[in-house]
Inverse folding.
């Protein structure tokens, strides 16, 4: 029991970090679709500078989550890779496109003739990938998966093609855009650029509330008791209330950001996103995937045998001991030291 | 096309592409670190340029290889759910270590690519080396998982379900070390020859000394690997002979169990008559190579039930192709090492640079052939002597469509990567021209 719980905790943390860090990278691409009229070049340059050294490392949190599912919860992994194969593929294709476009924009120094193509591909694939990540999350909770069907459409399409999942996709796009705007406000080095990203943070915040409402509306409309469950669970309710309260200091520090970069807007922004994710965990837990017939795959009953979990935990702890210092060093060199220079 | 064949084709296609991306991701960082080391020692700006050019290649192939590897794990779940259900808990562990290695690789790559002005020179060099080490480590871990399919360990099979699972024993199975070593050396061989050939070709066209420097680094790696490989390969074959006698029999197209069995060169296996046509036989050599004694008994295919035979001809041809290409690369390496030592001018004129250009694909073809031997040679089993591929394949329809989708995806990736490499070469050459004027 404790063993399974600690492995689920690792899974939760890996997903959290993926959403916070890779999510912000996705958001950087999403924001490039909405550059507006002012400082277009500077905005792109800032996104590139902020992402370039860390985005590959940020992506690996997803790989870690996949590995934990693969080894620790094989039936959950297998069900997802069959029923949700198309959105998973969509995510992977998006990740490739995005990585290539980003790398090429940075490295294709031969000429500028492809620059706008790379940029367009980077922005669009950022939206695409974030959208399908949201669809995946939605499909796991919405309960349209039928593990026994042998039909093509029922197997591969029905589990995720519905308004709720699409709303989840949009919500995720807005969530990532919000995160990126918040981070980039702090990374911008001129007053004007900071103003641009502050405005984006405010707009993304509005879009987040609208699409969040859509998610609940479509859940209701699809006959899913999400709203009831969400507000019945003390944990998710706490997350919701805390996130709502945090909105006031967030707006205050966003306004103050005009005078100079502060850390508080980023800390609060990250906290809000983390609370949204925790709210989802609380509703979902301990069921990983819900089926159409009302049953589902529970983490505790689907976990691999004890020796496997033991070995997995050892690998995860050893991995953490190796990864965190290295990751800390990476962020120290490219994030903290630049922040120091700015001051 | 039936589901099983479509599913196997999709895995073959995906692995076939992935292994090329992954090999480049394994070996290139070491070339890059070698060039970087020379730069730091001698301060010749060409080596800095070369290091940066290669590091961009590493970055591109890392990104593509990472994603094609992730796609593979989903494909396994999609196409062979019967395998994943059992295999995940037993053999998932190397994957979790691979995740760690992969993480370190991504971090080190970020440090290396963007650390030119921020890190101390030798710390920076070290980060490049960590990219290579963790790349090789993650390949090793993944191969542990594949080796387990050839040499299952760490569980007891109880009426279709694994019990007494020991993930450590599964990871360190009998086949793991040699298979991993064989592949790692092969990656250095293949990528070394490809890079040396490419720069040799560019050097013949542009006559720029820069390319000669690149050729020498890449070729040295390739040559050492090519001379080590026959020894490693011999150990690997002995291990197959011990663990999977039927695979060895198919590789050598040996039908009857024979004492002092001959080694075949060429030969068309005829399954009906159980003979090989047009084969050159080296008496006793197979016994010697497989068991170290000229009169040792080697088991033939006829000792096994027919339904357990892998596709003999495919395995036999693939094995012969791999060995032939390996020998060719070893010969080229001997010649090249001699030139490097006594006649360095031969690297820019005469037949040798052209031969290097011709050798660009050899290592990769040999790798593909080698994996064909491993994978096709294990059929009809997905876990050797435990679970049949046909029993693990998905019961759902429509695998042909995902096959088409993946074929398109990999072709697209290849086109994209090729395009980018071409652009890199163009900008490198412009930089070189500017450096001259």
């Amino acid at each position: 029991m404790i063993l399974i719980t600690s492995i689920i905790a690792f899974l939760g943390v890996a997903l959290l970090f993926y959403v916070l860090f890779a999510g912000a990278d996705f958001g950087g691409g999403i924001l490039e679709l909405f550059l507006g009229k002012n400082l277009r070049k500077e905005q792109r340059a800032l996104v590139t500078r902020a992402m370039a050294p860390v985005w590959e490392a940020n992506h690996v949190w997803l790989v870690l989550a996949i590995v934990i599912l693969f080894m620790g919860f094989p039936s959950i992994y297998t069900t997802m890779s069959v029923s949700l194969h198309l959105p998973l593929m969509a995510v992977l294709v998006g990740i490739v496109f995005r990585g290539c476009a980003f790398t090429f924009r940075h490295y294709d120094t031969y000429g500028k003739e492809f620059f706008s193509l790379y940029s367009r591909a980077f922005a669009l694939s950022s939206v695409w990938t974030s959208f399908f990540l949201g669809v995946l999350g939605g499909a796991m909770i919405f309960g349209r998966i039928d593990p026994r069907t042998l039909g093509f459409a029922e197997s591969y399409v029905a589990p995720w093609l519905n308004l709720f999942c699409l709303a989840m996709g949009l919500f995720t796009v807005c969530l990532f855009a919000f995160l990126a705007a918040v981070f980039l406000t702090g990374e911008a080095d001129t007053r004007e650029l900071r103003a641009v990203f502050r405005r984006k943070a405010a707009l993304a915040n509005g879009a987040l509330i609208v699409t969040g409402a859509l998610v609940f509306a479509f859940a209701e409309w699809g006959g899913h008791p999400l709203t009831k469950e969400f507000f019945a669970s003390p944990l998710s309710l706490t997350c919701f209330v805390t996130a709502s309260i945090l909105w006031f200091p967030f707006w205050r520090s966003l306004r103050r950001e005009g005078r100079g970069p502060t850390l508080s807007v980023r800390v609060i922004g990250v906290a809000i996103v983390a609370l949204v994710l925790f709210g989802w965990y609380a509703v979902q837990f301990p069921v990983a995937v819900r089926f159409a017939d009302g049953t589902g795959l529970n983490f505790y009953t689907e976990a691999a045998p004890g020796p496997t979990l033991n070995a997995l935990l050892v690998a995860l702890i050893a991995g953490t001991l190796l990864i965190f210092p290295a990751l800390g060093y990476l962020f120290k060199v490219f994030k903290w030291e630049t922040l120091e220079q700015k001051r | 096309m039936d589901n099983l064949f479509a599913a196997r084709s999709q895995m073959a296609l995906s692995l076939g592409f992935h292994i090329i991306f992954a090999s480049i991701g394994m070996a290139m960082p070491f070339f890059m670190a070698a060039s970087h080391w020379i730069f730091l020692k001698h301060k010749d700006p060409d080596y800095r340029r070369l290091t940066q050019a290669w590091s961009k290649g590493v970055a591109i192939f890392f990104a593509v290889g990472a994603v094609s590897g992730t796609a593979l794990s989903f494909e396994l779940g999609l196409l062979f759910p019967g395998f994943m259900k059992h295999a995940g808990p037993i053999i998932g562990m190397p994957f979790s270590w691979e995740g760690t290695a992969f993480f370190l690789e991504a971090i080190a790559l970020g440090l290396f690519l963007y650390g030119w002005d921020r890190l101390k020179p030798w710390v920076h060099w070290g980060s490049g080396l960590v990219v290579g080490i963790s790349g090789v480590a993650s390949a090793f871990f993944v191969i542990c998982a594949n080796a387990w399919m050839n040499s299952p360990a760490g569980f007891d099979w109880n009426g279709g379900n694994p019990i007494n699972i020991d993930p450590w024993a599964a990871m360190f199975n009998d086949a793991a070390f040699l298979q991993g070593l064989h592949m790692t050396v092969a990656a250095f061989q293949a990528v070394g020859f490809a890079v040396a050939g490419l720069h040799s070709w560019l050097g013949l066209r542009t006559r720029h000394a820069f390319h000669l420097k690149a050729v020498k680094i890449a070729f040295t790696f390739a040559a050492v690997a090519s001379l080590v490989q026959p020894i490693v390969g011999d150990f690997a074959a002995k291990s197959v002979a011990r663990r999977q006698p039927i695979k060895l029999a198919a590789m050598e197209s040996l039908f009857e169990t024979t004492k002092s069995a001959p080694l075949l060169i060429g030969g068309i296996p005829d399954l009906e008559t159980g003979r090989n046509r047009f084969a050159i036989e080296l008496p006793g050599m197979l016994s010697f190579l497989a068991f170290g004694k000229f009169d040792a008994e080697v088991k033939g295919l006829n000792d096994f039930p027919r339904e357990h035979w892998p596709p003999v001809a495919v395995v036999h041809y693939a094995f012969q192709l791999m060995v032939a290409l390996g020998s060719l690369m070893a010969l080229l390496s001997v010649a090249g090492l001699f030139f490097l030592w006594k006649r360095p001018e031969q690297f820019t004129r005469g037949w040798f640079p052209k031969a290097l250009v011709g050798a660009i694909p050899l290592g990769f073809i040999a790798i593909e052939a080698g994996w064909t031997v491993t994978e096709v040679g294990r059929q009809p089993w997905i876990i050797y002597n435990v679970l049949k591929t046909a029993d693990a394949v998905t019961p759902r329809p429509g695998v042909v469509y995902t096959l088409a989708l993946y074929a398109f995806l990999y072709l697209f990736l290849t086109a994209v990567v090729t395009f980018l490499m071409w652009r890199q070469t163009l900008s490198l050459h412009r930089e070189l021209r500017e450096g001259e004027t």
In short: The first strand of chain B starts at residue 156 and ends at 158.
